[in-house]
Specification:
mainly alpha, disordered N terminus, disordered C terminus, two-stranded antiparallel ribbon
């Protein structure tokens, strides 16, 4: 078994190391592994089943996720939760939707930024997006997990850097026909949906639409300030197809 897995692991490591956007692949693998090994996946027998599994999930999300009512307590653990929450997901649908968006938009964005800058950008914007959401819902005791804020920042940066890149979208009101639109059409439309959803979400947190909006704005603003109008890419290869699932 070791002889079989050893070359495969080394080959995979060399492939990622030599890729033009290695950190995107690292984030994809890391988030997937954390989810599979955690209680939310339901694949780890150590967490039990039924009520025991549900209790383990709640405790897990509360420990590693952002709890707005506790975030501003003077403790190191609470201050770190906006970073740890970026790597925790609540369900298979939550994970797959986020990873799809990260794969589609992260590769080209990382190629443009470089691996170190992209990693710092991803974690920093994700942290600030969750922090902003927590500040707006400071009395909430509900846990918040997921990479949505960070991935929304990637979308914002992608919009600025590659506004003419064509993206394949599946629109339900057009019977899910795959249609190709430039990023400057698709991504502002996505942001508008987040804005409308955030306005109807009420006081209690559910899906963190506000974190999506904050992350998107941070990502676009960062790319605007960092790269300026003269470095925008006028045309780029189309990214892989993506659906309408929201990160």
């Amino acid at each position: 078994m070791i002889r079989t897995w050893g070359p495969a692991v080394c080959g995979a490591f060399r492939a990622v190391r030599g890729a033009s956007a290695p950190m995107t692949y690292v984030l994809l693998v890391l988030c997937t592994l954390i989810f599979v090994l955690g209680p939310a996946s339901g694949l780890t027998p150590a967490y039990g089943s039924g009520g025991a599994l549900f209790a383990a999930q709640r405790a897990y999300f509360r420990h590693w996720g952002v709890v707005p009512a506790e975030l501003f307590d003077p403790s190191v653990r609470a201050a770190l939760t906006p970073a740890t929450a970026l790597f925790v997901h609540g369900s298979w649908v939550h994970l797959l939707g986020n990873m799809l968006f990260l794969f589609v938009f992260g590769l080209m964005t990382e190629e443009r930024m470089g691996r170190v800058e992209f990693t710092l950008f991803y974690v920093g914007c994700g942290y600030l997006a969750l922090l902003g959401y927590a500040a707006a819902n400071a009395t909430s005791g509900q846990s918040l997990v997921g990479a949505s804020g960070a991935i929304s920042a990637v979308l914002g940066a992608f919009l600025y850097l590659f506004p003419r890149a064509r993206v394949t979208s599946l629109l339900p009101f057009l019977f899910f026909l795959p249609l190709r639109f430039p990023a400057w059409v698709v991504l502002p439309f996505w942001a508008a949906l987040q804005w409308l959803a955030a306005g109807r979400s009420g006081q209690g947190p559910g899906v963190a639409y506000l974190a999506h909006l904050i992350g998107f704005g941070l990502g676009f603003g960062y790319a605007w300030v960092r790269y300026g109008p003269t470095t925008r890419v006028k045309s780029a290869p189309a990214p892989a197809p993506e659906g309408e699932n929201l990160p």
